[in-house]
Each structure stands twice: as C-alpha cells, then as structure tokens.
Amino acid sequence: MLAIVNYGHFWSRELIDWGTVGYGNAGSLRASRKAGASAWTADFRNQIAIYALFNEEREAVYIGQTGSGNQRLFHRLRHHSRGQLRDRWTNFSWFGFLEPKDKNILVPPTPRSNGFDEELMQERRQKLLDPRYKAHSKMRSMRLKRF
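Above: the chain sequence. Below: its structure as tokens.
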C-alpha cells in the first residue's frame, strides 16, 4: 500500500490549464513548492490521489479518489468540471501517492520506515471535510511536500 507523500491545498479551479483541442495540448496541473515562484516544479496531471472539491464557502461538495485504470487527478477534475458538479465547486485539495521524479514524470515513492498510518489517514480525511482545521504538524513530521 502506498503512503501519501505530497498534497495541494485549496487550489483554485480557475488556475487549471484545461488545454485545447489538438495533439500536445492536453492541459496540466503544474505547481511549485514555493508560493509565487516563476518556474514550476512538477505537473500533477497524472497524480493518483484522494481529492476533495469545495464550494465558495470552503465546504466539501465531493470527495473522491483516482487511480482506477486511466482515471488520474486531471481526468477526474475535468469530468467534474463538465458533469453535474460543474457549478458547485471553486477549489480543490488533493493528497497524492506519487512523487515527482522530473517535471512531467510521477513515480511511486521509495519505501520509508514510517509506512502507512491508518490513524493519520483518518485525520487527513477529517481535514478535507473541515478545511478550517489548521494542524498541519503531523503532515510536516511525515515529510510530506506541499505544492
């Protein structure tokens, strides 16, 4: 079982590069580890993750997971932008299982001694449901990378 190794918190739907019609214009979910950085660090388009969609009041309207077949994070967000939830969400958060190896390549993480912690996973689910919860100390102690 994979452990969560990175996350993105309250990303704006408006900042997603949805791409255009045609080969090579597939869109992206680019991020940098430092706020306001001019260069991007990784593209999380193909991330396997647990994610949540939030409305303007930062209330969770949907929680899902990716990784079944070709269902990666970008594909699921695009589906939600066109489906019945299209007018109900403005931001999203995700907790990812793949590490960026290069700007466009995500790989499973190297094994760590701390392994998977079900209690911590439950706490992260609670954070998705209550975004006002600010205790990120356990996340930092797990060496998670925020994007």
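DSSP finds three helices and nine strands in the chain.
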